[in-house]
């Protein structure tokens, strides 16, 4: 059988084509303290500088062995772009949103003419994508990641968002339209910079939280717009939503993404059966297994998840920053022996 480059391998797997083995990739947050120590670049400074972002991102490849590079490490740069107040991160903690910027339709209107190419953190992330693509783009997948439109709207609108979608608040429709438009344009800028895979992280667009009616109304159509826009560029999309999405997989599949990333609460067998188009990827427990477990336990669980039907065995959510490198290497080594029937 032909041996493929990591870039070719991921592309082919997500499209159901024949490959030599499983890709060794992580679609969620990759940085750890051990990687930071190895390359002498640390949070929170790394969040703010394109060169640091790229150097720390490549540590997932050079230190751990993942056959892909991915930026960024958090999902707050987009909210910051739209005027939200952040709590600064630390060495082992990501920044978080603590202040919101949109209450009314008039507030949404103020942001409609947004542009890239300035000095915002999203612009630095785009620049870091280019740095990585220039160095690794011929061989490795270049993965760009962003918060999804539903969760971005919630960041902008705060706790009012969930009540608003239930009560037909007039801010809801223009806000979700704005955040979806932003996500498409932001993803496109990352693709122009060299990204070939886009991950949509939409944690609060959860089937568990919304139920089927609201999920189908406020999540599926907007995820599909992003997936369709990326497909027109021949770019793969992965959708990650936290929590037990087992019962919502069939609806998530309607978005037309290439992969659905699921966390450790999801029943892989049921998820694989429910998804007719998207490949199921996941769902190693980032806390109890990858952080607190052993390499032998990681290998054993990888074997189980693959047998249960995951197309790509990888992390079920963002990697905990204190995760030992040896546990992540056990995952990488497993993928090199995992062949598809």
Automatic annotation (TrEMBL):
The keyword Metal-binding applies. One of its GO terms (molecular function) is methyltransferase activity. One of its GO terms (biological process) is methylation. Its cofactor is Zn(2+). Keywords: Lyase, Metal-binding, Methanogenesis, Methyltransferase, Transferase, Zinc. Residues 5-336 form the Uroporphyrinogen decarboxylase (URO-D) domain. It is an enzyme of class 4 (lyase). Its EC number is 4.1.1.37. The keyword Zinc applies. InterPro entries: Methanogen_methyltrans, Mtase_MtaA_CmuA, UROD/MetE-like_sf, Uroporphyrinogen_deCOase. PANTHER family: METHYLCOBAMIDE:COM METHYLTRANSFERASE MTBA (PTHR47099:SF1). This is Uroporphyrinogen decarboxylase.
